[in-house]
Write a structure and sequence with these properties.
The complex is a heterodimer. Helix content of chain A is about 40%, strand content about 25%. The radius of gyration of chain A is 19 Å and the shape is globular. Chain A contains 10 helices and 10 strands. Chain B starts with 18 loop residues before the first helix and ends with a helix. A two-stranded antiparallel ribbon of chain B has the order 1-4. A two-stranded antiparallel sheet of chain B has the order 2-3. In chain B, about 75% of the residues lie in helices and about 0% in strands. Classes of the chains: A alpha/beta, B mainly alpha.
Chain lengths: ~250, ~375
């Protein structure tokens, strides 16, 4: 049994089969990338895995547990965190508040103790803060701690999203186009971070990405998708050279 | 200029940021404690409204400013709290018990009204809460065995554990006490995970959910808490107004609450209090101006011999005395605030504070609003 498995996953929007019988496994400790032209169903798969969409068929399992029917707010507690393609940060809150919110899945204080802000709440808050500071140090976000997200540039927001996902203490990290909108240097940083996330933090990564240089630099395995169906799976070079993949991207 | 020097995580969690904060809040506390002893009883009574509206403001701020759910029906919660409190007092319950029951009942009502909020947002939620408040107003006028309908209900000044809060001064302190308690409790929630979850729901529901926030629970919690605080305000409101009638708790009052939080500044507890000062003190201010402008201008005319000034003064006084002027001024200020200062009086306050803390290096362009194409900027 693999670490994460999608088995025959499908979803229809009206008559459109956005994801049509997709199966793949992600092994613990690898970076697994999904590529494909626009509209291939990559982000839809992410939304299915994080349970925002209800699949019309198929099964999802994670760490030996069937998660097909787990409600979306319990996904984080299981150890699956995600970033969003179009940055979904809490924009009128500070970076620190954003990251602290990511600790919500580990919340142990009750409403009444918070109402009175008992010493136990203070202690837990400081524990959360310590966890958050680790992510801040890992991604070099120290100088932005107290900035409101609205005042931060796009590149920093992108990194903040990654930091927020890491603050949930995930075992599986879903990265939805981590390099979109970033310049070459920032993309390079991102590549190093993804490698560190895998090697140093030991987190398994499932990624959607368009930048082929980033994909081949960090991915262990790649799955190419077209019209909601997988067309090739394998190591990056293999998939990039696959005739079906070239046809999907270039036509013909 | 102040440079924050942080050496422990505790510093970011504390109630007051540093000693300077403690000093200013202490000064404010002394001022509000001493002022009523120096003021005329009439002004003490008017200032009490600031505290009651302040509690209402905190209630709505949690819902609108922090959780991002709009309510056009909060006057109904105020009414439920007021009527419940008056009803239990009339049936001989001790004051503290009556307040407790009033808060419990409004909290329960808030939970029930919060249920549709799980499916609705924005304008739809506003309409749903509006409908709720219309229904509740109808209940107030029809359920005569409890509310005495349009015959109304007389409410005496509170007697707590045998201590009578009969005059305006003692009632002022009672309201101040409850405002401070509500502020403290709300601030506690806002610096804890619950408050962060509310802010997260306001800014991005989908991200909040993916980070483990149960939307249904936290939205209904916000509604219930907001309603409960409003119920407490209602209990004090009942004593203050001394006579309950169903038409007090109409939509205009709900709109006034909404105006309070918007003028004050959405998303800050300071804003709730600034808004309360504004809403509570504007009518008496207009009344004072109405009387004093013609008089002082007539005096000025008599002293200097420039007679047209007296007629101008009389015209201003007559204008201010016209019915509807008060509402008109409210509306005008609301429009101006939204156009010029979207963060409300709190936003203006931040600018003034920055001006003094960076003096003489303040740059006017710090807060310049520019057109920008990021999602967040468009929503501003």
């Amino acid at each position: 049994m693999s670490f994460f498995t999608a088995n025959n996953l499908s979803i229809n929007f009206g008559g459109i089969k956005a994801v049509d019988g997709v199966s793949f496994d992600v092994e613990q400790g690898e970076v697994f990338t999904i590529i494909g032209p626009n509209g291939a169903g990559k982000t839809t798969i992410f939304n299915l895995v994080s349970r925002i969409y209800e699949p019309s068929g198929g099964k999802l399992s994670f760490a030996g547990r069937d998660i097909t029917n787990v409600p979306p707010h319990l996904i984080a507690a299981l150890g699956i965190a995600r970033t969003f393609q179009n940055i979904e940060l809490f924009e009128h809150a500070t970076l620190l508040q954003n990251l602290l919110l990511a600790r919500h899945a580990h919340k142990r204080s009750s409403f009444w103790s918070e109402l009175l802000f008992l010493p136990s709440v203070r202690r837990l808050e400081i524990e959360h803060r310590e966890a958050v500071e680790k992510a801040i140090d890992f991604l070099d976000l120290q100088q932005y701690r107290d900035s409101l997200i609205v005042n931060l540039p796009y590149g920093v927001r992108k990194v903040t999203e990654l930091a927020r996902a890491l603050c949930t203490d995930p075992r599986l990290l879903l990265l939805d186009e981590p390099s979109s909108g970033l310049n070459v240097e920032e993309t390079e940083d991102m590549a190093f971070w993804i490698q560190d996330i895998k090697n140093v933090l030991g987190i398994t990564v499932l990624m959607v990405e368009h930048d082929m240089s980033l994909v081949s630099a960090v991915s262990d395995r790649v799955m190419a998708l077209n019209y909601g169906r997988p067309i090739a799976t394998g190591v990056p070079a293999e998939v990039q050279a696959h005739p079906e993949v070239i046809r999907a991207y270039l036509g013909g | 200029m102040r440079f924050p020097f942080k050496t422990s995580y505790n510093q970011d969690i504390r109630l007051f940021r540093d000693r300077v904060d403690v000093f200013w809040y202490g000064l404010l506390a002394v001022a509000v404690l001493v002022l009523p002893l120096l003021m005329d009883e009439y002004y003490v009574g008017e200032s009490t409204w600031v505290f009651i509206y302040g509690i209402c403001g905190v209630s709505l701020m949690v819902l609108v400013g922090y959780t991002g759910l709009v309510s056009l029906g909060h006057a109904a919660f105020l009414g439920i709290g007021a009527y419940a409190h008056a009803f239990f007092i009339m049936h001989g319950a001790p004051w503290v018990v009556a307040v407790g029951l009033a808060v419990a009942i409004t909290t329960a009502c808030g939970l029930i009204v919060g249920l549709p909020a799980l499916r609705m947002t924005g304008i739809y939620l506003a309409i749903a809460t509006l409908a709720f408040s219309v229904i509740i107003q109808e209940v107030f006028s029809r359920w005569e065995s409890v509310t005495h309908g349009f015959a109304g209900m007389k409410v005496d000044r509170p007697v707590i554990f045998g201590v009578a809060f009969a005059d305006d001064r003692s009632f002022y302190y009672l309201c101040l006490f409850f405002l401070v308690i509500v502020l403290w409790l709300t601030r506690n929630l806002l610096r804890a995970p619950t408050g962060r979850a509310w802010i997260a729901i306001r800014d991005s529901e989908i991200a909040a959910q993916s980070m483990g926030v149960n939307l249904a629970i936290y939205k209904s919690m916000a509604f219930a808490y907001s309603a409960g605080v409003m119920g407490l305000a209602g209990a004090l409101f009942a004593h203050k107004i001394a006579f309950l009638a169903p038409d007090i708790f109409n939509i205009l009052l709900s709109i006034q609450f909404l105006l309070l939080v918007i003028v004050g500044g959405l998303g800050s507890l300071h804003g709730a209090l600034f808004g309360a000062v504004f809403v509570a003190l504007l009518p008496p201010l207009i009344a004072i101006l109405r009387d004093s402008i013609p008089d002082s201008m007539a005096e000025f005319a008599a002293a200097t011999g420039i007679t047209p000034v007296a007629s101008v003064g009389a015209a201003v006084g007559a204008f201010l005395a016209k019915p509807g002027v008060e509402a008109g001024i409210f509306g005008l200020i609301l429009v101006l605030v939204i156009l010029l200062e979207p963060l409300g009086m709190y936003g203006r306050w931040l600018k003034i504070k920055l001006f003094f803390s960076t003096f003489p290096m303040y740059k006017a362009s710090t807060f310049k609003r520019q057109k920008s194409y990021m999602r967040s900027e468009r929503l501003r």
